Amino acid sequence: MPRLTRLTPNTAVGASRDLLADLVSRHGQIGDMVSTMAHSPAVLGGYLQLSRAMGRARLDRRISERISIAVQALQGCRLCLDSHVNAARAMGVDEEEIERAHTGTSADPAIAAIIALALQIYREPTSITDEQVIALREYGYSDRAIADVVGVVALNILTGAFNLLAGLTPESDSSV
């Protein structure tokens, strides 16, 4: 059961009201997470900005979805995990690779290496080594794609932690 209430453009105040009104006018409806984030215009605005920025990432979306699956499998946000699994499927990632992502790996060594980096960023960023970054470059990842991993992880931490705090689950979400 949700712990925080949903807000609408009519019930939100200030900057949150404006952000929600803009989202509703552009998309018609908004999901529980966004409408609940509106309690904090700073959180909602930050989420929207980071989400838009990550839309311009150079990291292949099929890889970033697998990273998101790995992070959310650890973090425990079922709403996020389901969303990323569905997105990966829609992009043609097969079920075996989705299952591997749940365990933080891939059959492709290059993808397994970037997922491993993402999980280190999530768990223990001080353990990242120069050799790992060199190996990622040898797999063909640019510095920009490697840097994008931090953004993917950060976005997942934000959304997953918020949903867990707010008590949002797949059953409570009426619109993603």
UniProtKB/TrEMBL annotation:
This is Carboxymuconolactone decarboxylase family protein. Residues 45-116 form the Carboxymuconolactone decarboxylase-like domain. The lineage of its organism: Bacteria, Bacillati, Actinomycetota, Actinomycetes, Kitasatosporales. Pfam families: CMD (PF02627). It comes from Streptomyces olindensis. PANTHER family: CARBOXYMUCONOLACTONE DECARBOXYLASE-LIKE DOMAIN-CONTAINING PROTEIN, SI:CH211-175M2.5. It comes from the Bacteria. Gene3D superfamilies: AhpD-like. SUPFAM superfamilies: AhpD-like.
